[in-house]
Design goal:
By secondary structure, the chain is mainly alpha-helical. It has a domain of 119 residues. It is built from eight helices and no strands.
Length: 173
């Protein structure tokens, strides 16, 4: 990945900063997941245009494509694939965590701004972001999916005085 892109990342600060116990706020896998999401966002060409277009606003000519609303027609396959990957990542994370990932990873907003936009409690942005990055890292395969040891067994969820009926096995000759 491009060094300038990584150096602009708000996630890099979280990876490098330590909490009061000396641990990073996020780990390397969470950082990689956030940067992968950001790279897909950049490839998907969804960021706001920063430069001005000096094309004429009316008239005929060969620059109609600059004013057209049909930007999908001009989009390359790489951008379309990146949009599909971005959509799949946000669906895997879920609507509760995708907002903070979008604000911080894709738009590179600060935590205070993301908290204000998403109406999160103050100083909760890092914790919510860490949860989202963990889920994102699991989606990308950087973390193993949790599976309980006895995933085929069902626990008992009945009332305290419930007693199951035990039927003897059928006698086989």
């Amino acid at each position: 990945m491009d060094h300038t892109i990584v150096s602009e990342s708000p996630l890099l600060r979280l990876l490098q900063r330590k909490d009061h116990k000396g641990h990073s706020y996020i780990d390397v896998k969470q950082f990689a997941a956030g940067e992968r999401l950001r790279a897909d966002f950049e490839r998907a060409q969804l960021s706001a245009r920063v430069t001005s277009a000096y094309a004429p606003s009316s008239g005929s000519g060969g620059r109609h494509w600059q004013m057209s609303d049909n930007s999908i027609e001009r989009m390359n396959l790489g951008a379309m694939d990146a949009r599909d990957r971005l959509r799949a990542a946000f669906e895997a994370v879920g609507p509760e965590l995708s907002g903070v990932l979008y604000q911080v990873c894709c738009l590179t907003a600060g935590f205070e701004a993301a908290e204000a936009i998403l109406n999160l409690p103050q100083r909760s942005g890092k914790a919510v972001l860490a949860l989202g990055l963990t889920r994102l890292a699991r989606h990308y395969g950087f973390l193993k999916t949790y599976r309980p040891k006895d995933s085929n067994k069902i626990s008992h969820w009945a009332m305290d005085d419930y007693r199951p009926a035990i039927t003897p096995p059928a006698h086989q000759p």
